[in-house]
Write a structure and sequence with these properties.
alpha+beta; outer membrane lipoprotein receptor (LolB), chain A; Phosphorylase Kinase, domain 1; 12-stranded mixed β-sheet
């Protein structure tokens, strides 16, 4: 009995010591996060993202801006900082820009609401605040939360979020499947809370022009045949589907390859070399939604009973169509297309 009393005394003393040293409880941190989110006017962040969803890790750089209440800018680039895509949200809608091809799409979409977003600090904080099953721990420098997620891809089941103790800014995020295997990792290299912005920072035309002027990578020549078409095959195919049949087609823009999969959930994947369009006037996709594929953004649309998903990767345009695949499986197939290739 005396030992139990002694242990209780020691634990109580330790708790008082930690409190005196400024160690915050989960409730303290949650209250501080709620206040931070309520007072947030905007932020700028830079991060390094690693995708572990293929045979080899894929690494990208991410630049993200947010201005209260609903202006967003996320720029994706590869390891060499070659520009890839920019997704914007402003008062005119949601835009997906591919500066090297002079292409832009406009959606009437509520992105980034209603789903988790690994790049966005406000989304991460909301995931923490809204998950009653969250777990909490602390290290010397970080508060660590593990939460459930609401990503479109249901395989992205849980996430571990590290926040810097000093100011509650994000340090890193790991997104895991149900077996806690890390599929996506994001490490923030810079973050500015309540950042200032200039007029036009979220304007579509200004972002397109700025990205093109500051690119060290020459845009693809219109109709260029400098390189042969690299054909990519998906690593992920739904159960009961297979037996791909490949056929070559000739179009006014050069070689086009169509890969048809048969079985219980048939689908068709078409790909061809990307070309630069002459004008950057946004193509409106009123019935579509932007889809985060990790390495790029695509556009998913529905025409009758057919669902289509289009995107650009490594100088190729891709077009995936099916009457049988769910939106989740469409995105899963698309995310796996970069895995294998042939000339």
């Amino acid at each position: 009995m005396n030992r139990i009393i002694s242990l209780l005394v020691i634990l109580t003393a330790l708790a008082l010591f930690l409190t005196a040293c400024g160690e915050k409880s989960q409730e303290d941190v949650i209250e501080a996060l709620d206040k931070t989110l309520d007072e947030l006017t905007g932020y700028k962040g830079e991060a390094e993202m690693t995708l572990q969803t293929g045979e080899e890790p894929q690494k990208y750089n991410v630049e993200v801006w947010y201005k209260h209440p609903s202006s967003y800018r996320v720029a994706l680039s590869n390891e060499d900082n070659e520009p890839s895509q920019i997704i914007l949200r402003n008062e005119e809608g949601v835009f997906v820009l591919t500066p090297a091809l002079n292409k832009s799409f406009r959606f009437q979409s509520d992105w980034p609401e209603n789903n988790s977003q690994v790049y966005l600090y406000d989304s991460l904080v909301n995931d923490i605040l809204m998950d009653p099953e969250r777990s909490f721990s602390a290290t010397e420098d970080h508060y660590v939360f593990q939460t459930n997620t609401s990503y479109t891809n249901k395989n992205l089941n849980q996430q571990e979020i590290l926040l810097n103790k000093k100011d509650l800014t994000p340090a890193s995020v790991k997104i895991m499947d149900v077996d806690l295997k890390v599929l996506v990792e994001l490490k923030f290299t810079d973050f500015e809370m309540n950042a200032e912005f200039n007029d036009g920072d979220f304007d579509m035309d200004r972002n397109m022009t700025h990205a093109q002027l500051n690119s060290d990578v020459p845009a693809l020549a219109e109709g260029s045949e400098e390189d042969s078409l690299t054909v990519y095959y998906p690593l992920y195919v739904p159960d009961g589907t297979g037996y791909p049949e490949t056929s070559d087609l000739e179009s006014e823009n050069g070689r086009r390859v169509m890969i048809s999969y048969e079985g219980e959930q048939p689908f068709t994947l078409v790909q061809q070399k990307s070309i630069v369009v002459e004008a950057s006037t946004p193509m409106n996709i009123s019935r579509g939604e932007p889809v985060d594929l990790g390495f790029t953004y695509g556009a998913i649309t529905k025409e009758g009973d057919t669902t289509t998903l289009s995107w650009t990767y490594e100088g190729n345009d891709f077009f995936l169509a099916s009457k049988h695949l769910s939106d989740e499986d469409m995105a899963a197939v698309a995310k796996s297309v970069y895995g294998t290739e042939e000339k």
